[in-house]
Write a structure and sequence with these properties.
Layout lengths: L2 H6 L2 H13 L5 H29 L8 H17 L2 H9 L6 H15 L5 H39 L1
Length: 159
């Protein structure tokens, strides 16, 4: 809290701030980062294993193996979410489970499962895409900005 905001507090409020801060449990930031790193790495390692499986056993190339790998990772995430396992992993590992594909699939499946009692259209579809809409808009906008920057750099470098 900044000194400017502390001056607006009464002495009793300032004393309470010190009291509560002294009794607040310390967060194990380093341990939490380690857990997130390990679980995120494990998810990525599983994805790499799925990718290698498709490369070795099917007629995929490095360029074409991405789509089935992503589909399998999404499927695994949705299955683990639906049986309640992914939430326990996420609670323990924190941000490590937010690896883009699996984390997004988990959040979509969680929203669909949570609101299924409201019906398929307004419950599952409406609530599930409440989250997806913002992510898709941000993704499209980010892709536009990156493409614009790349185009400008190409034009400036080429002339």
């Amino acid at each position: 809290m900044s000194n400017k905001k502390k001056k607006k507090l009464t002495p009793v409020q300032q004393e309470y701030q010190r009291f509560s801060k002294a009794r607040e449990p310390k967060r194990p930031v380093l341990f939490n980062c380690l857990k997130a790193f390990l679980v995120g790495g494990l998810i990525c390692m599983i994805g790499q294993g799925v990718s290698e499986f498709f490369l070795w056993n099917f007629d995929f190339t490095e360029k074409t193996v991405g789509n089935p790998t992503v589909a399998i990772m999404i499927l695994l995430s949705v299955i683990l979410t639906s049986i309640g396992v992914y939430d326990h992993i996420a609670q323990w590992a924190g941000a490590g489970t937010a690896v883009p594909v699996t984390g997004f699939a988990n959040s979509m499946a969680s929203a669909a499962i949570e609101h299924r009692s409201e019906g398929f259209v307004l419950g599952v579809g409406g609530k599930m895409f409440k989250l997806a809409g913002s992510v898709i808009v941000f993704g499209v906008f980010s892709a536009f900005v990156v493409a614009l920057i790349k185009t400008l750099l190409t034009k400036l470098g080429g002339t």
